[in-house]
Amino acid sequence: MNLEQLRGFVEVARLGHFTRASEYLHLAQPSLSRQISTLERELGAELFHRARGHIALTAAGEALLPRAQRMLAEAEAIRDEMGEMAGLRRGRVRLGAPPTLCISLVAEALSTFHDAHPDVDLHLTESGSRLLVDELAVGAVDIALITASGGQPPPGVSLTRTPLLAEELVVVSSAARQPVARTPAIGLEHLATLPLIVFDESYELRATTDAAFRAAGLDPNPVLEGAEMDAVLRFVERGLGVAVVPAMVLLDRPALRSVRLSHPMMSRTVSLAHRSDVTPAVAVAAMRDVIVATAAEVARRDPAIASLL
Q1: Residues with Cβ within 8 Å of residue 1, at least 6 apart in sequence
Q2: pLDDT tens digits for range 210-224
Q3: Which domains does the chain have, with CATH numbers?
Q4: Are the CB atoms for 290 and 109 separated by under 8 Å?
Q5: Considering only CA atoms, which of 246, 306, 256, 287 is closest in space to residue 108?
Q6: Beta-strand pair 143-147/243-246
Q7: Which of 31, 94, 190, 268 has a beta carbon 3.0–4.6 Å from 123's, enabling a disulfide?
Q8: Cα separation of 64 and 48, whole Å?
């Protein structure tokens, strides 16, 4: 058994197809098939049910998959750490985060980290929390910022989650227009009367606000729906409507003003997660420290954001 065989097995299991896995690995399909066949002979068990157009894991394959993912992640961490200790390279950090954090907390943390460690390679995966949990499980990212709705990893994989912030959802409007309220907070009844810009249905924020309106028996007044975060904020800045967003997105956006939500107040918890069974490389540990420090600084600037450390 070797790491290349395990990597091939994991990718076939992930993609459910030998051809797509061989393309992803930049490996000829016959070579990948031989790797899997050799691995099966060495283990004395078939790992896949093979049928035309469909690949499924056997019971032996399901038992091997979390162990193979863990071994590959640990091997990658060893390579990074040994490279750093040998002075051959300065390391690599693969960070995952949702879009709402990429334009706020992550932007500040990456800038600080790069200033201090300019030779470290940085890779950012921007995705929803549920998908980021899956990315952590297979070792595609080293650490990730996730929200409380991130879900659970597959069986056999354990994640360590460190809560960083409790962040309120606020109503943002254009700073060039009249404020939407003269009070420091508004309720859902008031919000339902305003022209609302709502996110694409893939956003967890959309599901949260829709559920709150349904629970209150209210029908909101959307003027635009289906936009992504950057587009929503630009539309709000231009006065097209208002939007419900995490408080942190207002960082360095003077063209926006916000008012807090009440009745009910909605919030989310932001945590920093990594695999419990993989020792972070030196560069990854340094990035974690920067993110923790940046989160604490962000919380000091905004009463709608509370530090959980």
Answers
A1: 39, 42, 43
A2: 999 999 999 998 999
A3: 3-71 (1.10.10.10), 72-157+270-299 (3.40.190.10), 166-268 (3.40.190.290)
A4: yes
A5: 287
A6: unpaired
A7: 94
A8: 11
pLDDT tens figures, 147-181: 876 567 777 778 999 999 999 999 999 999 999 98
Q: Is the peptide bond before 264 cis (omega within 30 degrees of 0)?
A: yes
Q: Among all chains, which residue has been given the structure tokens 């093979």?
A: 50
Token output for 272: 């920093």
Tokens matching residue 184? 């420091």
What is the residue-averaged pLDDT of the chain?
88
Largest CA distance in the chain: 73
275 has which bridge partners? 159
Task: Please spell the DSSP secondary structure of 80-114, one letter per residue.
Answer: HHHHHHHTS---EEEEEE-HHHHTTHHHHHHHHHH
In the chain, which ranges are continuous DSSP H helix? 3-15, 18-25, 29-43, 59-86, 99-102, 105-116, 129-137, 188-191, 204-215, 229-237, 282-301
3-state secondary structure of 297: helix
Phi and psi at residue 202, to the nearest 5°:
-75, -15
Please name the residues in contact with 187: beta carbons below 8 A apart, sequence gap of 6 or more. Answer: 261, 262, 263
pLDDT in tens, 180-211: 988 889 999 999 999 999 988 878 888 889 99
Q: How many CA within 13 A on the CB side of residue 65?
A: 23
Residues 6+ apart with CB under 8 A from 212: 188, 264, 266
Read off the amino acid at residue 253. Answer: R
Burial (CB < 10 A; 0-12, 13-18, 19+), residue 22, is buried
CA distances for 90 relative to 75, 79, 81, 82, 119, angstroms: 17, 11, 9, 10, 6
| Angle between the N-to-C axes of helices 59-86 and 282-301, in degrees from 0 to 180, rounded to the nearest 10 | 90
Residue of 300, 304, 302 whose CA lies nearest to 244: 304
Token code pair at residue 95: 């960070």
